[in-house]
Every structure is written in structure tokens, then in C-alpha cells.
């Protein structure tokens, strides 16, 4: 980009973008929750289902449920939690407590509303903090969490994966583990405006400056609403850079899986909705393991030969006891 405004200014712009999209007035509130925020009323977040279906953990958490394993009794922190739906999902899997942290005050406000609306089904075990990821160790006790969890669409808002890894390591107790599912940088590097094939346009590796974009809409369904804060800034981080950053902080990588689907339709003209299942790594056909084309499910894959490219990945690491 030209005329780089600095990382702090980029973060301020991104925060304003998230706050505005969260805080847009809701004309038809959800029946069990006064929905003041545009993202909260989007069908993509399924807030109403979280309220009425007390067993629902969300499609993103459900995708990695078997990888997460038993988290009963763990003290967890969910970095960049947005509206807190994934945070609630972790509580419903049995976590003793889950702290959600996000830089958007409007999003955290809505997350707290969701927690109040789900008291008795996980919401009473949630707490939320407004802060930049890089300030996490200033607002929560260091080395106090059994599990640090990060969901889809998080690292792209952060300029330095090295600084991020220091935070992750600093939050974990000895013996604690880190868990993340994230968009694959190969998918993010593809030109999303092309309709004639997969063409690389954006960086794969971390660069000194972010990619600037101008978009009055949102990454989710907000019924066509246009917003005043149109600029945004996103950063790229290669898988190797992410892995090495965690290793450099003394964490041991315990699992790394690449997936042939993502919960985000990154290439609208070249991807299709494929349900809640996973592409079988042993089968090059589109073979979905659960609930193929289930209504409301959240995985997408390239329509043509999705095995050509990783869409997302799950990474796990352990802070070993000394």
C-alpha cells in the first residue's frame, strides 16, 4: 500500500469498522435478546439459536470438537472473541471458565448480552475484556490459563505474529495448550474478484505493511446494509511463520492439520456451501462426513477440485512443564 499510516492507526480504523458493524440499530430484535448490534442479528452468527438451543456450540467449534477433546474443568481464554458465540461454545463443552477478549467494545457489549441471555447454559461461566491482543497480559493474569483458543479470522488483524506468540505463551500455564483454527494464507492470497480461476494476488507471507481495502459492507450477511467506515487493513502470515513464532516462545507443536474447507466463503464466485462435515483426506472426491448440505451449516470449498489448495488449518501447541 502507498502512504502507510502506521500499525496503530490501522488498528484504530479496524476497531472503528468492527464497532460500527456491531452497533448498527436492529429493527427487529431477537425474541429472547434485545439485539442492538448488526452483526448480532446476522443469521451467520446464529445468536438466537445459541439462546434457544442450550446444546448448540456453533459450527466453528463443532468442526474441531474431536480435536479439542475433553476440556471439562479447564480455565480458558478466547482471543479475539468478537460476539462471544465461540466463547459460549467452549463453556458448553465443559470449560470451568472462559474469558473472551476483543478490541471492539461494541462486540464485547453484545457478547455480555449473550452471556446474560444464556445463564444456566454456559453464559454464567463467561467473562469478557476489551483489549488489543497485544495488551492481553496487562488485563488478565499471566500464566493462568489451561487453554488459549483462537478462532477463524483472527491473525489477519495483527501485524506481528512474533508479538502474538509471546502473548500466547505468556497466557498459558505450564502444561497448558494452545488451539487455533485459522484461514489458510494460501486461500487469503487468492484474488477474490476473479471468476476465471484461482489466481494469487495478495501476500502469503508477513509483510511490513498491511493490505488496504475499501468496502462499505461486511464479511457476513447484514441484509445489504452499507456502513460509513469503509477502509480496513489486513495482514498476512504464512503457516511456517506462525508455527516458528510459537516454537521460538518455547511451545511444542503437537498437531497441524490443513483442511479442504473453511467456514468463510472467501471466493464467492468459485466456492460452494458444502455443509458441516470435513473432506476426507483419503478420498479425492467431495465426500462429506457429517450432515452433508445441512441447512444453516457453515463450511465452504472450491467448487472445482477443492483438494488443489488448503482452505484453513488447525494448529495445536503445548507449553511444557519445566
UniProtKB/TrEMBL annotation:
Please give the organism: Ophiocordyceps sinensis (strain Co18 / CGMCC 3.14243)
MF term (GO), any: methyltransferase activity
Q: Which Pfam families match?
A: Methyltransf_25 (PF13649)
User: What keywords were assigned to this record?
Assistant: Methyltransferase, Transferase
Q: Which domain of life is it from?
A: Eukaryota
Q: Where is the Methyltransferase domain?
A: 81-176
What's the protein here called? Methyltransferase type 12
For the biological process aspect of GO, one term held by this record is: methylation
Q: Which InterPro entries match?
A: Methyltransf_25, SAM-dependent_MTases_sf
Amino acid at each position: 500500500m502507498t502512504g502507510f499510516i502506521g500499525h496503530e492507526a490501522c488498528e484504530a480504523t479496524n476497531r472503528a469498522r468492527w464497532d460500527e458493524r456491531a452497533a448498527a440499530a436492529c429493527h427487529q430484535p431477537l425474541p429472547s435478546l434485545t439485539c442492538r448490534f448488526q452483526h448480532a442479528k446476522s443469521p451467520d452468527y446464529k445468536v438466537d439459536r445459541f439462546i434457544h438451543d442450550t446444546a448448540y456450540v456453533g459450527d466453528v467449534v463443532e468442526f474441531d470438537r474431536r480435536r479439542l477433546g475433553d476440556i471439562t474443568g479447564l480455565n480458558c481464554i478466547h482471543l479475539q472473541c468478537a460476539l462471544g458465540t465461540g466463547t459460549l461454545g467452549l463453556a458448553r463443552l465443559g470449560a470451568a471458565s472462559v474469558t473472551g477478549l476483543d478490541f471492539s467494545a461494541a462486540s464485547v457489549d453484545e457478547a455480555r448480552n449473550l452471556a446474560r441471555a444464556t445463564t444456566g447454559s454456559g453464559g454464567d461461566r463467561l467473562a469478557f475484556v476489551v483489549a488489543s491482543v497485544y495488551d492481553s497480559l496487562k488485563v488478565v493474569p499471566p500464566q493462568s490459563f489451561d487453554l488459549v483458543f483462537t478462532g477463524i479470522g483472527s491473525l489477519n488483524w495483527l501485524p506481528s505474529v512474533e508479538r502474538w506468540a509471546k502473548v500466547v505463551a505468556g497466557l498459558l500455564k505450564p502444561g497448558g495448550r494452545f488451539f487455533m483454527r485459522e484461514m489458510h494464507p494460501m486461500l487469503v492470497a487468492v484474488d477474490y474478484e476473479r471468476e476465471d480461476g484461482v489466481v494469487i494476488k495478495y501476500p502469503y507471507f508477513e509483510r511490513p505493511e498491511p493490505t488496504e481495502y475499501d468496502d462499505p459492507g461486511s464479511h457476513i450477511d447484514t441484509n445489504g446494509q452499507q456502513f460509513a467506515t469503509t477502509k480496513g487493513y489486513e495482514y498476512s502470515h504464512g503457516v511456517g511463520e506462525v508455527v516458528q513464532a510459537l516454537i521460538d516462545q518455547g511451545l511444542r507443536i503437537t498437531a497441524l492439520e490443513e483442511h479442504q474447507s473453511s467456514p468463510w466463503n472467501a471466493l464467492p464466485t468459485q466456492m460452494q456451501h458444502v455443509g458441516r462435515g470435513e473432506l476426507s483426506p483419503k478420498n479425492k472426491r467431495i465426500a462429506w462426513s457429517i450432515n452433508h448440505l445441512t441447512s444453516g451449516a457453515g463450511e465452504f470449498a472450491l467448487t472445482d477440485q477443492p483438494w488443489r489448495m488448503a482452505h484453513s488449518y488447525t494448529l495445536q501447541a503445548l507449553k511444557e512443564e519445566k
